[in-house]
């Protein structure tokens, strides 16, 4: 007869120890589970909070009034249309001048030759052009009128990369000298304002006497107070760059100024890095300051309402 299984003292002792050591493991597993549930709960709650906050933020943004851009404000005020109209008037004025009219709507010929007279001047080595940029609305009626007039008269110099606007004049003069020196090989390059009545033969004679002179910066030299108060006439936004005395450096008046070939070439080569200020004559004068330019102050180029032995007069 087989006996019942029995356990020895040693076996009972081992099982008892095994059961005792498993209790802490169970407790650790339980606490780990509780901890995991707590962390998961917090993460879920945080996720819900973030979603709620995101929705509230989105709703708040949608309800906020639209922030108007500068363009929006200009359109609301009607300034954008006004700015466009000013550009149109300026381009129309240039077109009218090219057709032989001066300001004040007087039906008189301008000083600029036309037709055969213009061709004869070019045979003498003198090239004269009306300089103009393009309309802000490329290809519009203004651009077409300029192109049509130029096809007839051949007396325009159109700066294709420049947008015509009053505030762009400093960049226009840079663009002019840079482009002119690429198109014509001349000893001198001159810029004349469109409100000037010019003694053309007197200017040609003046330049004939200067032939062969490199580094010539010719004009009616001046300086003056830098206007630092916004809203005043001749306000200079970067007035602080001109020192405590607030005085411009010596520079040629923008009504009529002349550069020799090498100075015009300098503008062409360095055009991208040349700084412009509020006014074209000040901008050009700043470019000349760092060069070995010869400043030639010629009183005959000081345009005024009375000519009196001057090459030019204000029309």
UniProtKB/TrEMBL annotation:
Its cofactor is Mn(2+). Transmembrane segments: none annotated. It comes from the Eukaryota. It is an enzyme of class 2 (transferase). Keywords: Glycosyltransferase, Golgi apparatus, Manganese, Membrane, Signal-anchor, Transferase, Transmembrane, Transmembrane helix. The keyword Transmembrane helix applies. The keyword Ligase does not apply. Pathway: Protein modification; protein glycosylation. Residues 22-99 form the DUF4094 domain. It is a single-pass type II membrane protein. Its EC number is 2.4.1.-. It holds the Pfam family DUF4094. It is found in: Golgi apparatus membrane. InterPro entries: DUF4094, Glyco_trans_31. Belongs to the glycosyltransferase 31 family. This is Hexosyltransferase. The lineage of its organism: Eukaryota, Viridiplantae, Streptophyta, Embryophyta, Tracheophyta.
């Amino acid at each position: 007869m087989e006996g019942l299984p029995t356990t020895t003292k040693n076996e009972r002792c081992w099982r008892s120890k095994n059961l005792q050591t498993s209790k802490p493991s169970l407790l650790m597993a339980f606490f780990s589970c509780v901890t995991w549930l707590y962390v998961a709960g917090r993460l879920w709650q945080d996720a819900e909070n973030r979603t709620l906050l995101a929705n509230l933020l989105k709703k708040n943004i949608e309800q906020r009034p639209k922030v108007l851009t500068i363009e929006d404000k200009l359109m609301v005020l009607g300034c954008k249309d006004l700015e466009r109209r000013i550009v149109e008037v300026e381009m129309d004025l240039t077109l009218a001048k090219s057709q032989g009219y001066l300001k004040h709507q007087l039906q008189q010929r301008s000083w600029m030759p036309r037709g055969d007279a213009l061709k004869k001047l070019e045979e003498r080595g003198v090239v004269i052009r009306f300089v103009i940029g393009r309309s802000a609305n490329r290809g519009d009626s203004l651009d077409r009128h300029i192109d049509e007039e130029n096809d007839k008269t051949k007396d325009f110099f159109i700066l294709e990369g420049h947008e015509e606007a009053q505030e762009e004049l400093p960049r226009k003069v840079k663009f002019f000298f840079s482009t002119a020196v690429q198109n014509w090989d001349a000893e001198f390059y001159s810029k004349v304002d469109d409100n000037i009545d010019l003694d053309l033969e007197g200017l040609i004679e003046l330049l004939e006497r200067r032939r062969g002179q490199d580094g010539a910066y010719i004009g009616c030299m001046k300086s003056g107070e830098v206007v630092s108060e916004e809203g005043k006439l001749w306000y200079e936004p970067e007035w602080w760059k001109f020192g405590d005395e607030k005085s411009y450096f010596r520079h040629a008046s923008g009504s009529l100024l002349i550069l020799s070939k090498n100075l015009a070439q300098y503008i062409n080569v360095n055009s991208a890095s040349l700084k412009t200020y509020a006014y074209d004559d000040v901008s050009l004068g700043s470019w000349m300051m760092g060069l070995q330019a010869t400043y030639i102050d010629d009183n005959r180029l000081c345009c005024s309402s009375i000519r009196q032995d001057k090459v030019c007069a204000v029309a």
